[in-house]
Amino acid sequence: MSIANNLQNIKTSLPPHVTLVAVSKTKPVADLMEAYNAGQRTFGENKIQEMAEKWEQMPKDAEWHMIGHVQTNKVKYMAPFVSLVHGVDSLKLLKEINKQAKKNNRVINCLLQMHIAEEETKFGMDEKELEELLASEEFAQMENIKVKGLMGMATFTDNEQQIAKEFTQLKAIFDNLKNYPVPNSEISVLSMGMSGDYKIAIECGSTMVRIGSSIFGMR
To answer: pTM for this one?
Structure first.
């Protein structure tokens, strides 16, 4: 199967309200261009330097999403062009994104990463940390970021009930967030679901899925 065919198959299985992020980390620009030529415009990377190199080589209407864990000292490299940062898991990181966005005269869209999995290795905030961040004076004063919604990763397991439970929990937090006024935000994006579990994620209310191996093949 070609990348274009894989892409077509996945796109036909997605409801119209769900955005597909093609996870292109570690893949060469030639592979990305094949997806681009098949109509894909949104790409997800997990290393900032690699993303910046690809951004320089690719057509400028491609959108770049940072989906990995973000180190504060690397934010400056993506601030000129990144479209959406999925993994914002602390006020400290948000402050740095705001600072670098200001330097580039931009407003950078962010998703706040929630910890919903049972594994301790996954990054993200719990509900209390989320509430504290959103209620903080520092957050209210940030003019160069916009919180667009939430992101989360389910436990890596074959237990579909557990995955659905975790996604449902994140959807409830998301719905809650939409209902009360948060400064610097337009809550519309719920990024959950990857190659292995995106169908469950969509059933649970995801509006954005991050799919790599099902498009580009295994790494």
So the answer is: 0.96
